[in-house]
Structures are given as structure tokens and as C-alpha cells.
Design goal:
The protein is an alpha+beta fold. The chain contains nine helices and six strands; from the N terminus they run αααααβααββαβββα. It has a four-stranded antiparallel sheet, sandwiched between helices. The chain has a two-stranded antiparallel sheet with strand order 4-5.
């Protein structure tokens, strides 16, 4: 049920992305439309209960995250004070213990970040990471680079005809393929799943002409690949690439809208 709810939410957000103002009435109108489109009854008690459980779980996750962060900040402050005293007293053993505790805190923060900012299925960054970590507080780009949108055209068809697992594996394959090819050329990239069927690749390079040629070659290579499932099923999926450069302090909303509009127009 959570997966279905995510699908409705993503379709709704995709539809409303170009609106400068999204009123609750408009959001729920579109949400209702897409729920009916995938044959979900919003008045069904089981569905309502599932939504309530998901909301409660999300709040628990966020509350746990915030409590852990506050606890870690308190521990960090304490360890900092301990370190000052250990340095003054030239206490090497205490400094070693403090160092070990700092490593533990670092690992805990990474684990907490994974809970909030990593896509469960693919283990890459999710949309929360883009807006919370990659962009600044005003959702402006922090760096110069190129944004590549990969639209997996056949994602929902594969999901419907062959199941969730195969659709997930298709996305995972694309992510691994992109990671490998870009890293082979030493490009600095970050990958995030924006919608179920859409992947953002942030390429932190400024040579647009060189990147342009590389992306064209990658798109051709990917389009020529036929995948084979464990059951022997052959899949030759369709992909569409859309990309443009961005500069530090550019508004992310404009670029996201531009690329998503291009994706819609070509579908």
C-alpha cells in the first residue's frame, strides 16, 4: 500500500510542479484523480488506516532522527570539552578514547542520514536529499554543473506487466550503468531518484561541450542494451535523456521544471 501511495503522490507532484502556488484543494483534486486512475478507493477504510499508519511511521522516524541529532550534539559538546581538558593535561589515553567516540558519532549521523535521505529500493539519494542537502536553504544550486534527467519510459509498463521486482531491477541496472560510465571518466556526479521512473544525475563539471558529447554516447549505449531477467525474459527498455547546465545560485525549480516539461512533451 505504501508503494501505491508513493505512486499517487509522485504523479500528483509531477502534475503540479509548474504551479507557483499549490492550494490544498488543487492538490487533493489531483491526488483523487490519480488514485481513481490506478483504481484505489480513497474512502476505503483499509486504505485510510494504511495512510494513517504510514503518517505515524514517518513522524516516528523524524522524531527519532531529531532526538538522535540532539543527543549527538550533546555528546559532541561533552567530548569537545573532554578533549580540551585532555589536551591541557596531556592525557593521551583520554584523547584516544575521545577519538573513538567521535568515530562512533560520525557513523551514527551517517546511519540517520541514510534513513531519511536514501531511496529504500535503489539505495541512492531520494528527493528529500536534493532539497535538504544538495541545494541551499533557498533551493538554489551551490555549484556549477550539468543536470541530466533520465526518464525510464517503460518503467510503469514493466511494473504492471512483470512485477515490482523487475521494475526495481531495471532502475538499479540504470543507476549502476551510469555510475560506472561516469566514474570511468573521473566525472564527479551525484545520483538521486526524483520520481519512480525519473533519475536526476548532477554532474559537477563545467565543460558543457565535453559533457554533452559524453551524454550523447551514454544514451546510445544504454538504448542498445537488452536486459535478461533470471527467468529468461528479455527487456529492451526505452529511455529519454534531457539535460542542461546550471550555475551556482541558479534557481533549481526553473531547471527542474524545464527538464520535466521536456520529458512530458516527448512522451
Amino acid at each position: 500500500m505504501k508503494k501505491q501511495l508513493e505512486k499517487i503522490t509522485n504523479l500528483t507532484l509531477n502534475e503540479l510542479l509548474n504551479n507557483k502556488v499549490i492550494l490544498p484543494s488543487l492538490y487533493f483534486e489531483k491526488f483523487d484523480y490519480y488514485a481513481k486512475d490506478i483504481e484505489i478507493d480513497l474512502d476505503d477504510e483499509n486504505f485510510k488506516n494504511e495512510i494513517e499508519n504510514i503518517i505515524v511511521d514517518d513522524f516516528k522516524t523524524i522524531e527519532k532522527y531529531m532526538n538522535s541529532i540532539m543527543s549527538n550534539v550533546s555528546e559532541l559538546k561533552e567530548e569537545t570539552n573532554n578533549a580540551k581538558n585532555a589536551i591541557i593535561n596531556k592525557d593521551i589515553n583520554s584523547l584516544n578514547d575521545i577519538y573513538k567516540n567521535m568515530i562512533k558519532l560520525e557513523k551514527e549521523v551517517k546511519r540517520l542520514n541514510n534513513e531519511l535521505f536514501i531511496d529504500e529500493e535503489t539505495k541512492i539519494f531520494n528527493r528529500k536529499w536534493i532539497y535538504t542537502k544538495f541545494l541551499d536553504e533557498e533551493y538554489l544550486f551551490r555549484n556549477n554543473g550539468v543536470l541530466l534527467l533520465i526518464d525510464v519510459v517503460d518503467y510503469f509498463y514493466v511494473q504492471k506487466e512483470y512485477g515490482e521486482l523487475l521494475a526495481k531491477n531495471l532502475i538499479v541496472f540504470i543507476i549502476n550503468f551510469i555510475n560506472e560510465k561516469f566514474k570511468d571518466e573521473k566525472y564527479n556526479i551525484q545520483i538521486a531518484r526524483y520520481f519512480d521512473d525519473k533519475i536526476f544525475v548532477f554532474i559537477l563539471e563545467e565543460n558543457f561541450k565535453e559533457i554533452n558529447n559524453f551524454i550523447i554516447n551514454i544514451e546510445k549505449m544504454l538504448s542498445n542494451i537488452t536486459l535478461k531477467s533470471n527467468s529468461g525474459l528479455l527487456i529492451k527498455a526505452n529511455y529519454k535523456f534531457h539535460y542542461d547546465f546550471f550555475k551556482s545560485a541558479d534557481e533549481s525549480k526553473k531547471l527542474f521544471e524545464k527538464l520535466l516539461d521536456l520529458s512530458k512533451a516527448s512522451s
